[in-house]
Amino acid sequence: MGRPVNAAALATRLRDQGIFGILLLMVIVCVLFVPNFANHDNFVNILKRAVPLGLIAIGQTFVIVGGSLDLSVDVAISAIAVLTSLILNGRVENIVPAIAVALAVGLLIGLVNGLIVTKLKVNAFIVTLGTKLILQGILFSNFNNFAGKAPIEFDRLAYGDIAGIPFGVILMFALAATAFVVLRLTKFGHHLYAVGGSQEVARLSGVRTDRVLIGAHMLTGLGAGIAAIFIVSLLRSGGPHVGDGYDLDSITAVVVGGVPLAGGRGGVWGTIAGVLILAILSNLFNIFNIGAFAQQVLSGAVLILVVAVYSFRVRK
Amino acid sequence: MIDYTDNLQNTPILAIKGVTKTFPGVTALADVSFDCMAGEVHALVGENGAGKSTLLKILSGAYRPDQGTLALHGRDVIFRHPSEAQAAGISIIYQEFNLLPDRTVAQNIFLGREPMRGPFVDQAAMRHQTAALLDSLNVAIDPAAMVGSLRIAQQQVVEIAKALSLKANIVLMDEPTAALSLHEVDHLMTLVRRLKARGITILYISHRLDEVFAIADRVTILKDGHWVTTRPLAEVTRHDLVRLMVGRELDTYFPSKAVTIGEPVLSVDHLFVSDFLKDISFTVRRGEIVGIAGLEGSGRTFLARALFGAERIGSGTLTLNGKTIHPHSPREAIDAGVGFISEDRKHEGLALGLSIRANMALPSLDRRQRLGWIAQSMERQTVTELSRSLEVRAANEQVEAQYLSGGNQQKVVLAKWLATEAKLLIFDEPTRGIDVGAKASIHQLMRDLAARGVGVLMISSDLPEIIGMSDRILVMRNGSLVSEFMGADSSEQQIMQAATGTLSDERLAVAS
Predict the structure, then answer these.
(1) Domain span at residue B20?
(2) Do B86 and A206 touch (CB under 8 A)?
């Protein structure tokens, strides 16, 4: 065609790294202009609030990169949280088994989602919507309130810290770093991007697309398990609604962070930036006493705006 | 008893035995059998729908045959997945690129076979090996470049490099030169010879018979899914090949030129588009075919898109049959009577998931509707007539476009524009990747349309086609019209010189 590729390269750069610039800009603006923002306690607060969403959004990043999706994470978190809480039953010696079960159930839910998506070839949106509703049915019919109890020692996860940095924050960044390594440096990660880019191209190049997608779904399930464990530590118990909202919020964070819904590009640090942006927004809403309704309107507007910028096509 | 040396010599490296493959509504291959010997360049030719691409997909493990078997080195094999074919030493280069635009060149080449260092992908090794591979092909492409940012010709090279990196002993090529310039074709020919010297067997689909004669040892002809013959190239002539492919004598390859040329159908005056197209002026007259030649990137497709309302026009006038038109969108262009047969028929020309009928009816739905309801019988009639006059080969009008061969797909695209009764038709690479028979019928159609008073503008990178079909040839370079030739008086050299802006004589590797 002959047109210079500069415009396309710029749009690419915007998509891949723009979110960090936005985050930085946001922080600077808030520090300068928002009262009560720029202090140690508030920063720690923002980070702590970001942790549960961060944990699940990291998991969601995998499926979306692969061109898939998981809408069932909210109920998965709630169900696993209740289960974990029940197993803990207030006893220290149950901590290890509880964690093991939580992670195993998360992997299992992911496995089921992955199998249905790949073997029955049903659209991920539909599949995970279905598993969400099924899990919801089972959960809500048996529990309408918190159940079980975490022992005091379990508090350490959500309330402890190392050198002033909360455990949860360390966990979130450690998990993000691990996810980064997996996505960028492992064969699985390379194949996941390929599957997201074009399942057919990947298949014809010998990639085992089914296994890759099942693996991605299992990692998302694992993320739900980890998030559930953290939430149980945070709330000292688990209830059927503790995961509410994390389905759409995690997808929002991933997409705002630069991974297209179709997959194939982007990364986990973008997701973390997206999570932090949402956390800062939430913080601002509190500082300015913005009501819940307005919060939702603003969050929705931010999502649309950011994705519109990503989709901006330079006129040839 | 068994003389092993004799066996090794006579055992074909690849044997195709009784292979049959059908799709809904189409039998792609019927009981096809032939052999490939080790180290030969084996050409596979045939008309559209002959089954060549399907056969390659079966060989590469992408499809499984409904009946029949493949044998490698004398032993029967079944490929359940492309990775198994790869592991068996078979490597394929597709006609439609199998690349991921959002990944780098290195990542694309090593997809599925990433070099590892411990548990991690060895990115440095990937980059180095890619650089070495591209060097050996004599191309300057950055291994870290995003494939989506490369030109078509460069993407093609990446495809070839990818297949070569598999160190396969059988390489399958499906129309590898369709999108290459003469210079790049030259490179590929050299490459194929190098591969052959290394003992690699090459099975090569091409519609360019010149290439087949230049490079192949033996040729197999398929027709309508059946095997016709397998012969050494030394024993056949071009004439023979064409006759065996289509079953009739084709003594002239292009329809005769225009006899009477009338009033201007399209007038373009001082067209400027987007800082790129500068001061373009030309006319297309009734009865003539105007060909546009030029190198990739010279602006030919851009010009076509501007005429079709797909690019914003900066300044200039367009006049169609005496009326000034200002197409701001393809819809306005279509209403004004312009049709555009794009070079990318899979993504821009057809809705692959829709039926032949739906595709053909699409741009002219308005003509057969009242209050939003479409007159079904009118539509059926229109589609049937068009399918018949264009000789579209398919079981029926409900067959989905994605199952048609390239030539038939192109005919469907042409049909849909004919249904709009367009006054100007712009063809962009109308016969790329299409066999001789369908090519001839499309050329004849273009000539008939021109004679009927439809303005015909043809963009083509195929110099024999440009010279053979055009009454006048316009050459573009860097967004401007630099030369005009009368079709009868032009030579490939002249056009090339104008297109490249050099006065020196360029040796054309693949002579007409």
Answers:
(1) 1-89+169-184+201-251
(2) yes
Measured between beta carbons, the chain B residues lying within 8 angstroms of A197 are 100-103
Q: Which residue has the higher pLDDT, B503 or B119?
A: B119
- Name which of A23, A40, A53 is nearest A175 in CA terms: A53
ipTM of this complex: 0.85
- B363 within some domain: yes
Residue B332 belongs to domain with CATH number? 3.40.50.300
Both B111 and B147 in a single domain? yes
Nearest CA in chain A to B302: A1
Average per-residue pLDDT for chain B? 85
CA distances from B505 to A212, B67, B460, B484, B509 (A): 54, 53, 21, 18, 12
Chain A: give the shortest CA distance to residue B448, in Å: 30
So what's the pLDDT on residue A120? 95
Same domain, B160 and B133: yes
User: What pLDDT, on a 0 to 100 scale, did the predictor assign at position A177?
Assistant: 98
pLDDT at position B500 is 65
Q: Is residue A193 less than 8 Å (CB to CB) from chain B?
A: yes
pTM, rounded to two decimals: 0.70
Question: In this structure, what token pair is assigned to residue B61?
Answer: 């493990």
Residue A2 sits at the chain B interface (C-beta within 8 Å): yes
For residue B250, pLDDT over 80 is answered with no
CB pairs under 8 A between A and B: 89
The verdict on residue A137 lying in a domain is: yes
Q: Is the same domain home to B447 and B331?
A: yes
A8: confidence class by pLDDT, cuts 50, 70, 90? low
Instruction: Please give the Cα distance from A153 to A158 (Å, whole number).
Output: 11
**B121 → closest Cβ in A186, A198, A316:** A186
For residue B100, the chain A residues in CB contact (below 8 A) are 193-194, 197-198, 201-202, 264
The beta-carbon neighbor of B111 closest among A8, A205, A315 is A205
Determine which of A65-74, A262-271, B92-101, B403-412 has the lowest per-residue pLDDT on average.
B92-101
Report how far apart, in Å, the C-alpha atoms of B497 and of each of A272, B16, B185, B293, B507 are: 56, 45, 18, 11, 11
